[in-house]
Amino acid sequence: MKIVCLGTGYVGLVSCAVFAHLGHEVIGLDIDEKKISRLKKGQVTIYEPGLEELFGKHLGKNLEFTTSYSEALKGAEVIFICVGTPPKSDGSYDLKYVFAAAESIAKHLTGYAVVVIKSTVPPLTTTKVKEIIQKNTGVDFDIASNPEFLREGSAVNDALHPSRIIFGVETKKAESWLRQVHKKLPGPVLVTTPQSAQLIKYASNAMLATRISFVNAMAIMADQVGADIKDVAAGLGLDPRIGSSFLEAGLGYGGSCFPKDTWALISFAKTLGYDFNFLKQVDQVNNDQVDYFVNKIKLFFGGSLKGKLLTVLGLAFKPNTDDLREARSALVIDRLTKLGAVVHAYDPVVKTKFDDAYQALTNSDGLVLVTEWQEFSELNFKRVKKLMRRPNIFDGRNFYDPEKMKKLGFNYLGIGQR
Ligand code: UGA
After folding, report:
1. Residue 151 Cα to ligand 1 middle (Å)
2. What residues are annotated to the active site?
3. From ligand 1's centre to the CA of 150, what distance in Å?
4. Per-residue pLDDT tens over the stretch 256-303
């Protein structure tokens, strides 16, 4: 099928590559000329494992990029809107890019097409987008919602092996065209209304955020009673009704999705007259978690961090990405420096002034693990211990084995475990 992905950010690029891999004719469309000219040369503009390989296979064959709406939309059958929906200061989404995209699409439609919103948007947005398109074209079209559930760092794999494929549609024709687009993908298909589809996306992220905040609150309990949160989570997860994923205690969630989507759901609920107090607490626990961790470090040093050199390992919001949005690292560094510590930081992908973790750890009073990159588990800890001024590990992700670290001569502090 002839597919257009409008917006070549994270979701758009992965969708382009994966749809091309499934054998469709794909055009990536963006108004950012610099980005498009780089993409045309095969320079992948985001760090995402497996993406470059797919680009290499399909670019110039069934995958192309353009800034021209008329070129992209000529004969387009399915158009995915993948533009950004940045958060506003009140937590709601800014939908101006979605609406602008809808208007431009309408002006360039050449024949029937299914216009699919992939960007995460509040339910009811589809109605507005439909109105905008109707106002600007006489051409027949259908509107649909097809939320994505990709995780950064494993987006290509997730897209090729989806846990579920949701079609939020209003007509049988749109459903059948979307089925054709996705027919080579495994995974259950659920057909719903666009409103349900968009609520499924919000509900999924809010539920995962809830699990993380729940286990983090339990980690504080575990600290109080000398329990081990990893054991608690393991025992909890053995209940098949609960399951074991997303129960890793630590510094809490960051990234471009969980924080933004929980705020948006709270603010969307407010427009409907519902106070989503429950989710506010989830967000609060997540914010408090950084202070809880930093306070532990402060208490370890007897109440003051003045003059201490602390080394933050990991800046990205999670491993295998260069994404810093809502990363806990920024908050941790802010709190530590406000308490008088000098902070050195290193990340395998995000550039800092240090070449490697060893350099950043030299003369340090404490290793503060913020992002659990594999590289940090493979450090030579005998060497690390020699380089550091004091052998202290503050593990914000419960990444290291406390016993092993203690045997190597480190003082170890985790979250909900000792
Ligand atoms: C998340 C969802 O997992 C995807 O399904 C969804 O498509 C995506 O948001 C989105 O809405 O686009 P992502 O933000 O890439 O994906 O990252 P996750 O792997 O879900 O991790 C989010 C944050 O939660 C990270 O900061 C991670 O460190 C934290 N986390 C995760 C925990 O603190 N504990 C856990 O047990 C799991």
Report:
1. 6
2. 257
3. 9
4. 899 999 999 999 999 999 999 999 999 999 999 999 999 999 999 999
